[in-house]
Every structure is written in structure tokens, then in C-alpha cells.
Input
Amino acid sequence: MSSGRKFAKAGFAAGFAVRRRRCTIIAAMAVSVFLPIEVSEAGWLSDLLQNSPKHGKSPTHVTSRKPATLAKRAASPKPRTAKLAAPGPAKPVATKCDPSKFRLVLDVGHTAASEGATSARNVAEFVFNLRLAQRIEETLKADGFPETKLLVTEGKARPSLVKRVVAANELHADIFLSIHHDSVPNSLLENWEFEGKKSHFSDRFSGYSVFVSRNNPDFKTSLAFAELVAKEMKAQGLQYAQQYTQAIMGRYQHPLLNKETGVYSYDQLIVLRSTRMPAVLLEAGSIINRDEELRMDSPERQGIISNAVARAVREFCDTQPVLGPP
Output
């Protein structure tokens, strides 16, 4: 064969190879336009370009199934459905406290058989407690709290404490408030005669005090209610008793939780630590102080204290969310 024919034949073969390579590239680009390319499978196009005759490999080796797979996916794409989380239990809805359903148990401190302290004029503390608790009950019911319950217990001192706790728990009360009147340790008493009878008094101390137990199952709420009661008592111009922090009180000495309002802790008191609801004890005033005894005996002072407690209950109810059904 002449050199001219050999040269022409070689040129024709080279041109054919170039045209074939261009067609392959154009076909690949066309496929890339119409097929969705995922990140994990996008390399097939570069593989196709790299496996051109330029790199010494025949294009017949580029027979990857990836283009066919992608074409199939493009023809019938799988719908993607969002996975919905399984519905959990419905949560209770917080609603405002309903005064018509709010239940406060007014515990009358002590019993007729165990009367508590004796006043400077020889009147039993139980008499003061019952009278004030009844007045508070009337005020609360008139103020829109009809579920207020007066709790009067019978029996000796310690058994009666257990009885009143059981009764309060069975009533499913929202708040337990025990009403008392204050005295002082016997070592601080002085003698005097009233109506021809030997009596005892102590004019050194006076004022109200509010107690909570840090062992109550809901101490935080107990303290919140105690703060409201003390705040309202103070707002009426009343002063709290400050002697409970002094060493002269002996075993009756208690930590002062709020020096502004007169809230103390009495951790081991049964009615405060054993009730299953927030519990507070109010010492309304000192009946061993001769002047304060007269004030505590007056309807005016009883009205002041009753209104203070009612306002505290109202404010407490307004700020306490009640969990209702979902």
C-alpha cells in the first residue's frame, strides 16, 4: 500500500475515533440532563468521561447499571411519606383556681378535753381557737369559698393530732390551716390574781406567728401560703412575735424563715408534716399577754384576722393553676 493511502486510512481512523468519542460525551451529557443524579451515584458520569479512548480503554467497558437505575427511578419515583410520631398521652390543661371548688380545712387547735394554753384571765385556748376559726369560716364562705370545712376534733392531745391529719387527708383539702393562740414557756410566766383567783401572765411578748414544716410533702406551696397569710396580717398593722428565735424559748425555739413577715419553721409538728396537702399553722396572737388577750377577745380583732386570712386565700387561689382533664 502506498504511503499516501496509509496516511489517508490512518487519518480516517483517527477522525472516526474522535467523532465516536464526541458522540459518547454528548450522549452522556444528554443523560445527565434528563436523569436525576443523587450524590451517591453521581460519579458514573465522570467515570464515563474518564474511560474514554484518551485513557487507553475501550468505551465498551463503560456499561455501568447506574444510568439505567437512575432512569428507572426517574420514571417511577418513590413517594416519600413523612413518618408521624405516635401520639402520646394527653397532658392535663392548667386552668385557674375555682373558688367554688377550692377546699380549705380550718383546723380548730386542741380539743375540749385537751384545751391547750390558758389565758391570763383563765380562759382556755380552745375557746379562742374555736371562736376565731368559726369567724374565718363565715368570712371565707361569704367571700365565695363555700367548700371551706371547719374541723373540730375530740380526744386527748396526741391522739387528736393523728385524727385531724386523717380527717384532712380524707377531705382532699387544697390547704390545711390550723388556728391557735399563743403563750410562752412556763419559766417565763409571772403570777397575778384575777377575779380572786391566782393566775399567770407574761406581758413581755405579743403578736402573731405563722409556722410551716419543711417535712411537709409540699413545703414550697405551704411556705407560699404562709407568706400570704403573714403578709396580710402585717398589712393590717399587726406585729409578729419575735421571741421564737431567742434562746430563752428553750425547746420552743424555731428558725425564722422570713424576718419581714414572721414565718417560722416547725418541722416536727404532726399536723404540718403529716398532711398530704400544703399545711400552715397560725398563732393569731398571744392570750398570755394581758393587753393582747383583751384584743384577741374582741370581735374587731377577730374580724381583722378573718379578713386577712380570706384575702390570703383569695390571692393564693388566684395564683395557683389547677390541672384539669386534657
In short: The longest strand covers residues 175-182. The chain has two domains: 8-75, 93-324. The radius of gyration is 44 Å.
